[in-house]
């Protein structure tokens, strides 16, 4: 038997299938399973160096001295960064670092917290 997802609107576990629609009997919300799988594929998970999942707005700590390209500056190990944004690409974290300004970082060089 197919394990149906909870309702995305009210999180009820009593959803049922009617043709190609999934229906919530508690709030009346209707959606297709194709939309549910597309949303899961769109959400790329970004993990830090320890394997913890990073989310928008998290605080991170740099775990390695990072040279800033085009300058002689270095972002020191232990530098704390608040309120990160996740972006697509090789450098998957967009943030502002005190004393450096806007910066993009690779998630493999940071840890959550």
User: Number of DSSP helices?
Assistant: 1
Determine the strand fraction and express it as a percent band. Answer: 25-35%
Query: How can the largest sheet be summarized?
Result: 3 strands, antiparallel
What is the molecular shape? elongated
Biggest sheet: strand arrangement: 1-2-3
Order of helices and strands: EEEHEEEEEEEEEE
Low-confidence stretches: none
Task: Please give the radius of gyration in angstroms.
Answer: 20 Å
Distance between the termini: 41 Å
Number of strands: 13
Give the averaged pLDDT, no decimals: 87
How much helix, percentage-wise, in residues?
Answer: under 10%
Instruction: Output the structural class.
Output: mainly beta
Structure description:
- InterPro entries: YjdM, YjdM_C, YjdM_N.
- With 113 residues, the chain is mainly beta.
- It has one helix at residues 33-42; strands at residues 16-18, 21-23, 30-32, 46-47, 53-54, 60-62, 66-67, 74-75, 80-81, 85-86, 93-97, 101-105, 110-112.
- A hairpin with a 5-residue loop joins strand 4 (46-47) and strand 5.
- The protein starts with 15 loop residues before the first strand and ends with a strand.
């Amino acid at each position: 038997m197919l394990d149906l997802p909870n309702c995305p609107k009210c999180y009820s576990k009593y959803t049922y299938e009617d043709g190609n629609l999934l229906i919530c009997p508690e709030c009346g919300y209707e959606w297709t399973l194709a939309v549910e799988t597309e949303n899961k594929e769109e959400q790329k998970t970004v993990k830090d160096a320890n394997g913890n999942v990073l989310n928008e707005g998290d605080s991170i700590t740099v775990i390695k001295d990072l040279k800033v390209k085009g300058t002689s500056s270095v972002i020191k190990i232990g530098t704390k960064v608040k309120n990160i944004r996740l972006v697509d690409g090789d450098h998957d974290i967009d943030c502002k670092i005190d004393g450096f300004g806007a910066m993009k970082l690779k998630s493999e060089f940071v840890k959550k917290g």
